[in-house]
Every structure is written in C-alpha cells, then in structure tokens.
Amino acid sequence: RSNYVKLVNGELAGYLGDVISELAYMLNFTIATITEAQSLGRSTDNASVNSVVARFNQGAADLAFGPFLMTNARRDIVDFTGQILTGKTYLYFKMTEGFYVHWDTHFK
C-alpha cells in the first residue's frame, strides 16, 4: 500500500492521486476502474508473478502505484519511472507499442 495514494469513496486521493488525476485531465484519458491489491506480486515456482504484476501481464491493468522492487522479470512486464518522492513509492505504466509519450513531456 502506498502512503501517497488512497481510495476515498472509489476516487483517488492523496498526493499521487492528485498527480494521476491531473495527468488524466492533461493527457485526456479516463480512469475506468480502481482496485486495491492485497499483494504487490512475487515470483512463484513456475517463474510467473501474481497480484499487481500479473494484472499488467494479463492486460487487466495499465497503471499502478506502489513500493515495487525493480527486477528483470518485472521489467519485462512494466515500465518503471524514477523515484518520485523520497521513499519507496513509484508510478508504473504498462508498456505499450506504437505512439510513445515520455512520462514527463508535459512538465517541460
């Protein structure tokens, strides 16, 4: 669980909640579903991953917040940002093909 984003009445709140809401407005996208995972994801015996990381792999998630450790297995599934704040919270986007906008383009 991130200390910087919370669900309040089904809506994002907190510092990163405000950031993603502003990104959604500026980049004209809609947040359709918000869910909280009980686990960030860990390796299993068959080299797969579960929980949040699995949601990316299955196409069920495009964005996640959390204190993930960057591993080679996770890098094959998600694109990591640099550290946003002093702490262990990062913003993750699903890797896409085709049109590419660098995550900080609108800040320049």
TrEMBL record:
It is found in: Membrane. GO terms for molecular function: ligand-gated monoatomic ion channel activity. InterPro entries: Glu/Gly-bd. GO terms for cellular component: membrane. Pfam families: Lig_chan-Glu_bd (PF10613). Keywords: Glycoprotein, Ion channel, Ion transport, Ligand-gated ion channel, Membrane, Receptor, Transmembrane, Transmembrane helix, Transport. It is a multi-pass membrane protein. This is Ionotropic glutamate receptor L-glutamate and glycine-binding domain-containing protein. It comes from Bracon brevicornis. The lineage of its organism: Eukaryota, Metazoa, Ecdysozoa, Arthropoda, Hexapoda.
